[in-house]
Amino acid sequence: MFKGPVESKNEAAMSELVPEPRQKPVVPMKPMGINANLLGYIGIDTIIEQMRKKTMKTGFDFNIMVVGQSGLGKSTLVNTLFKSQVSRKSSGWNREEKIPKTVEIKAIGHVIEEGGVKMKLTVIDTPGFGDQINNENCWEPIEKYINEQYEKFLKEEVNIARKKRIPDTRVHCCLYFISPTGHSLRPLDLEFMKHLSKVVNIIPVIAKADTMTLEEKIEFKQRVRKELEVNGIEFYPQKEFDEDLEDKTENDKIRQESMPFAVVGSDKEYQVNGKRVLGRKTPWGIIEVENLTHCEFALLRDFVIRTHLQDLKEVTHNIHYETYRAKRLNDNGGLPPMTAETEENHESNL
Amino acid sequence: DQRGGENFTNPETPGYVGFANLPNQVHRKSVKKGFEFTLMVVGKKILINSILKDQVSCLLEKIERTVQIEASTVEIEERGVKLRLTVVDTPGYGDAINCRDCFKTIISYIDEQFERYLHDESGLNRRHIIDNRVHCCFYFISPFGHGLKPLDVEFMKAIHNKVNIVPVIAKADTLSLKERERLKKRILDEIEEHGIKIYHLPDAESDEDEDFKEQTRLLKASIPFCVVGSNQLIEAKGKKVRGRLYPWGVVEVENPEHNDFLKLRTMLITHMQDLQEVTQDLHYENFRSERLKRGGRFVVAAKDRLRRMQEMIARMQAQMQMQMQSGEGDSSGHHV
Q: Per-residue pLDDT for A172 more than 50?
């Protein structure tokens, strides 16, 4: 069951964990003192502080989709990422639950809070993907779902009386799970990513990475990267959306060295060297999920959550959604799609 | 951890996910993007240099100059934060014998910016929309007289649903402190009497610190602000200050005991974000829903061209169909 809101215990520790790729400007948030100095010099940079405070108060939506064959540890990984039971594990198929005949889309939402920031997290699971004998076009229901969310948002946007904050159900990030075969990507992997990288941010991950040795891992990653490149698959962070040199340098390193992240997930804790760690216990040792020498889970988490969360949302909104919108407008002869409301008005104005 | 700087995993608070870092990510992006703000000034030539001290590095082009509207843009950078401030001046407002027209021009200007934004927002390519909507209007009230003049009332009522109005009393140095208090109260009463909606500073939230709460209280209690403007540097008490030199003394612009200039400045800067938000969520949305209800053409300009293209394509396809049907044809299968 859901663990409940995570409390921010140690504020001081929290601020140390803030990444500072660039020196943050020292912000005189409030005036220096009361009376004569109450209206001391207030800098323009306080505007940014105002926006920041606003973000904290409003909270935000984040929608993450997981795609991959069953048994690759998708649910466990998502639970590990958010340190809560946000995804229900399917512990094998029992007699009542059969493997779905087509791909199903299951979206489950949770509100989690940390450090005063509220997040409405939605995990979209896709059971049945890649599990059939004939998996032709099994990505279609997924593509359809993604486009449906864009359509929903678009309809809200063109309404006459719009909501102040349009609820955002668009998929911000799609984790694609690659089976750790050690050989190469399967045709299904390539087909899926080719189609979907055009409509959503895809982050490929190598699942159950504890089945590979370090050398096997390095080789496999290189091969996967090569195959993705050869097939023209642009996974997130896409080269063409690097905003400036700083982004490019940072992202190049991630694209060319770290990705795809080879991960292991777990929701069980063990005692290692006096600390409690998340891990997997095997007869030959405990695999520590957050230990960078064991697997790249921490890199994935930091990447998705701590540094690129906002960017994932922005690329979805400014690029993928806009592409969808432009196409829709074009198809409609330059007009926005009709909603019931606009249709009424259109009629009365004719 | 390879990133230059902090080490994420040490010390690791168990259960810490890290999305509390999102506001920092937003911060970083905002700093990169910069900030745009448009301030309209009605009734008095404002001295921008006073508001922004000596940061005005360069005055960019004067964008528009119609008979009564002058807009100029300045880019200011401070501690890495870029602000693109557009000041819309309205010279000659209130000077004519018959002032009816002067405020029509101003209202059209405000509406035009909304219209332009609506058009851009509805367009195909929305990547670089410029926001020239007026986020705030400083309305200057004359200190001579006993409160609002009929023109003041008419004008404010005409724009209070389109822009955030901040009433300001000009030439504060012609009034004694007592006279100022009386005038402020009079004006506030008249504003209420006539149902004029001015911009309301939001109350400080309960989780803000005492200083900020006190500051907000102070600002709210001083509205309408009573200011003195000057571009001259006068020598006073051994240092150079902006002020006005009289035989009986120097009025210092930035002395809170002489006038409310600093309060006005503080209010503007600490509420820039809120002013923008109210403009977007209230004034613009009102304009937009009214506009959409009225209908008419605001569709993408390329629509007609698009339709012609589509017709042409349909014709070509029809031709190809006919060709294929008549003979076996070499359907090279080129799809237009």
A: yes
Q: For B180-194, give one letter per residue: b (16+ CB within 10 A) or e.
A: beebbeebeebbeee
Nearest Cβ partner of A329 from B13, B124, B294?
B124
What is the 3-state secondary structure of A289-338? CCCCCCCCHHHHHHHHHHHCHHHHHHHHHHHHHHHHHHHHHHHCCCCCCC
**Residue B76 carries which side chain, given as an amino acid letter?**
I
- Helix (H) / strand (E) containing A249: helix A245-253
Query: What ipTM, to 2 d.p.?
Result: 0.71
Q: Residue B224, preceding bond cis, omega within 30 degrees?
A: yes
| Beta carbons of A148 and A169 less than 8 angstroms apart | no
Does the structure show a pLDDT above 80 at A314? yes
Q: Which of A336, A313, A311, A339 is nearest to A325 (CA)?
A: A336
Distance CA A336, CA A232 (A): 32
C-alpha dist (Å) from residue A225 to A78, A179, B70, B84, B225 = 23, 14, 56, 42, 63
Is A346 near chain B, with CB under 8 Å?
Answer: yes
Contacts of B227 (CB under 8 A, 6+ apart): B168, B169, B170, B172, B253, B259, B260, B261, B264
> Which 3-state string (H, E, C) describes B244-311?
EEECCEEEECCCCCCCCHHHHHHHHHHCHHHHHHHHHHHHHHHHHHHHHHHCCCCCCCCHHHHHHHHH
The residue-averaged pLDDT of B141-160 equals 88
Alpha carbon distance B6, A303 (integer Å):
14
Chain B residues touching residue A163 (CB < 8 angstroms): none
Amino acid at A104: E
Cα B241 from Cα B244, distance rounded (Å)? 9
Residue A349 and residue B265: Cβ atoms within 8 Å? no
In DSSP notation, A197-226 reads: TTTS-EEEEE--GGGS-HHHHHHHHHHHHH
pLDDT tens digit string along B74-125?
888 877 788 888 888 887 676 666 667 777 888 999 999 999 999 998 888 8
pLDDT greater than 70 at residue B199:
yes
Contact A25/B269, CB-based, under 8 Å? no
Provide the pLDDT confidence category of residue A98 given band limits of 50, 70 and 90: low
Interhelix angle for B22-33 vs A46-58, to 10°?
140
CA A137 – CA A192 distance, rounded (Å):
9
Cα separation, A151 vs A171, whole angstroms: 12
- pLDDT per residue over A229-279, tens digit each? 999 999 999 988 888 888 888 899 888 888 899 999 888 888 888 888 888
Q: Looking at the whole model, is its pTM more than 0.80? A: no
Q: Beta-strand (E) ranges in chain A?
A: 60-67, 106-114, 117-125, 173-178, 202-206, 261-262, 269-272, 275-282, 285-288
Closest by CA to A80, choosing from A217, A261, A279, is: A279
State pLDDT tens for residues B178-190.
888 999 999 999 9
- Residue B235's H or E segment, with its range, is strand B233-236
CA B199/CA B276 separation, integer angstroms: 12
Overall size of chain B counted in residues: 336
CA distance B174 to B182: 14
Residues of B in contact with A160 (CB under 8 A): 288-289, 292-293
pLDDT at res. B74: 84
Pairing outcome for strands B70-78 and B59-65: antiparallel
**CA B82/CA B78 separation, integer angstroms:** 7
Residue A197's CB: how many other CB atoms inside 10 A?
21
Residue B307, pLDDT score = 61
For residue B55, pLDDT beyond 70: no
Residue A14 and residue B306: Cβ atoms within 8 Å? no
Q: How far apart, in whole angstroms, are the C-alpha atoms of residue B12 and residue A17?
A: 8
